[in-house]
Amino acid sequence: MTTLVPHSPVALLLLAAGASTRMGQPKQLLPYHGRTLLRHAAETAVASGCAPIVLVTGALHEELVAEVAGLPIRAIHNPDWETGMASSIRAGLAAVAETRPAAVLIMLTDQPLLTPELLHELMARQQQTQASIVAAAYGDTLGVPAIFAKAVFPELLQLQGQAGAGRLIAGYGAAVERVPFPAGLLDVDTPEDYAALLTKPVG
């Protein structure tokens, strides 16, 4: 499938602030095919062509910053990370505000089967449709990675507590454009998830 290069700048927020309580260790630093999950996600983000790219840390900072060394990524620490994902979204949007992006793409570090091609497809769909939100579809879920047009930034900023972007996506219902991402059903939250991931072939 041929995808279009967005005419307008798209910023990318890579959210990695959580404490990985269900995993029992920092999942961002788990090994995955010769790199960590965070480094893999960061390289995927860079390959998307988005700019700027902001890594939002929380429970860990210096360890995560070291993992993105050499990549065109700005890392910021969210001091309010324990209040939930909404605070990381706010921190990330504040960090990219000066570049006045036309849209922002939000992704996580625990979806290692995500590809640059899927991110390109999200951006192309948003460019083609001018939809307020374009989200990945997996199982019965519409969620991140997802791209949000500038018009919905105020609503992202109003999210509170544990409410991530999924709540806003759900609120838009049928107005959300969707891009199939069946591999998104595997995210890495528990040791069992990680074991399942390691059985998947590369590529």
UniProtKB/TrEMBL annotation:
InterPro entries: MobA-like_NTP_Trfase, Nucleotide-diphossugar_trans. Signal peptide: none annotated. CDD domains: GT_2_like_f. It holds the Pfam family NTP_transf_3. It comes from the Bacteria. Residues 13-171 form the MobA-like NTP transferase domain. This is Nucleotidyltransferase family protein.
